Amino acid sequence: MSATIAAQSDNKTMRKQKNVLLAAPRGFCAGVDRAIQIVERSIEKFGAPVYVRHEIVHNRHVVERLKGLGAIFVEELSECPDDRPVVFSAHGVPKAVPKAAQAREMTYLDATCPLVSKVHVEAERHANEGLHILLIGHEGHPEVVGTMGQLPSGQMTLIETIEDANGFQPADPDKLALVTQTTLSVDDTKDIIAALQVRFPNIALPYKEDICYATTNRQLAVKAIAERCDLLLVLGSITSSNSKRLVEVGAKAGADKAALVSSAESIDWAEVDAAKTIGLSAGASAPEYLTDGVLAALRSRYDISCQEVEVTKEKVIFRLPRLLMEK
Q1: Euclidean distance between CA atoms 288 and 318, whole angstroms
Q2: Does the annotation count 160 as an active-site position?
């Protein structure tokens, strides 16, 4: 045996063994997939550039790819010219935004996730019935801004914590309704809802849980692997609410360590090296190729055995706007 072959053989035998638990479902949900398709097809139909108000979804890799296709991302409608199409992000927008677009006779496409739109409809229905709306969510998040913008100022109150729930003083405790941001932790939301129900037994609750199916499924998948993980890695952006909640859920469910990473390039390899079993999940706005990249990086450094742990299959598909379906 040559010295080179012997060295390669010794190197291979010295590679550490790592167990990888791959949570499923993970990554893109139907709402994110629809929103990205709306931008892609708008560019195909109308040509570049197409403007997008706010990041279409909270993931830098997705945004940069769409920029390469001809999307221009802005924060306000005032930054868009009248003669180019504009897409509203998956998080939803206040009612004033499409009204302003209509007044300027702009072509606009609404990529708001249908599950977020459902919350908007619920809030407006409750308000029409004379109820004050409590919204459980995170201040400043685009979805919260959009939901609160469905009603005139003063008709909705943001509740972020149990302390907020206990401190809220309504004008009429019997005329309240509840809605929630769709990307929250199921467990944390449950605690806040319970606190509100103790204080306001007649509060009108959502007909169905506002937290979206994809958020729930990804949290359940993380819970299914967390106790076995020395290290749980969640792929997602620091601006992604559902991704950050996955990290929190994993830590609470028993993972020794849980970390948010944007890609393989941002992994702390010292933490990986110290772990025997590594869990891997991805937020609803993280493309699957990022997961593939992490697995490839792990295989380049270690001998890994990979097991996918699937808690449910997702078959939800949301239709594209009619404007994009027309010839």
Answers
A1: 19
A2: no
